[in-house]
Design goal:
This protein has 199 residues and is of the alpha/beta class. The protein has a single domain, classed as Isochorismatase-like (Rossmann fold), CATH 3.40.50.850. It is built from six helices and six strands. Strands 1, 2, 3, 4, 5 and 6 form a six-stranded parallel sheet that branches. Strand 1, helix 1 and strand 2 form a beta-alpha-beta unit. The longest helix is centred in the N-terminal third of the chain and has 24 residues. InterPro entries: Isochorismatase, Isochorismatase-like_dom, Isochorismatase-like_hydrls, Isochorismatase-like_sf. One of its GO terms (molecular function) is isochorismatase activity.
């Protein structure tokens, strides 16, 4: 189990059922190699992530965005969101679908994993969340690294198979097999996930 810490104002709430939803790298300008192929599969995934997020919010499960800052060290999360929503290449549609709410949490990440050089682990411990539902892109890159780092830290992880995407269906299926076989991570479809309810 992740180390227990004393409650502080870092997180106002305690996660119902010790569960949190992570959304990885869905807010983007989609201007990188192979972005067009990834965007094609990311759009339907974004719709399912939005539906899952709505269910989580209804149950007061905290939602955390872990988003790449693309090496732009003077940027902040609001700027990342604004740029994503301004895109006309489909990224704007994703930005609108997954626009953060005022009480959502976020971390900017410099590398693949949501945990690497970010306060994500500290935030989760203050939320007392030890069960993570990890969604986003790419399933065989940033989602994979984040899930692996979460498992290394003894979090219980689920990666809903329909709430992540990569550049091809074959690569996505390979990632799912790796989640299940190597990482012991469940890949339950989002509609079948049983979410804890607030007490």
């Amino acid at each position: 189990m992740p180390e227990e810490v004393e409650r502080t104002p870092l997180a106002e709430d305690e996660a119902p059922g010790a569960t949190a939803l992570l959304i990885i790298d869905m807010l983007s300008n989609w201007k990188f190699p192979d972005a067009d192929r990834l965007l094609e599969s990311a759009l339907p995934a974004a719709e399912r992530i939005a539906a899952l997020k709505a269910r989580c919010r209804a149950n007061r499960i905290p939602v955390i965005y872990a988003n790449d800052n693309h090496g732009r060290w003077r940027s902040d999360f609001r700027e990342v969101v604004a740029q994503a929503r301004a895109e006309a290449n489909g990224g704007g549609r994703i930005g609108d679908l997954l626009a953060p709410d005022a009480d959502d949490y976020f971390v900017l990440k410099p590398k693949h994993s949501g945990f690497y050089a970010t306060p994500l682990d500290l935030l989760l411990r203050h939320l007392r969340a030890c069960k993570l539902v990890v969604t986003g892109v790419a399933s065989d890159q940033c989602v994979l690294y984040t899930a692996a780092d979460a498992r290394m830290r003894d979090y219980e992880v689920t990666v809903p198979r329909d709430c992540s995407a990569t550049q091809s269906a074959e690569r996505h299926e390979q990632a799912l097999r790796h989640f299940e076989g190597a990482l012991c991570v469940a890949t339950t479809a989002s509609a079948d996930l049983e979410l804890p309810r607030p007490e």
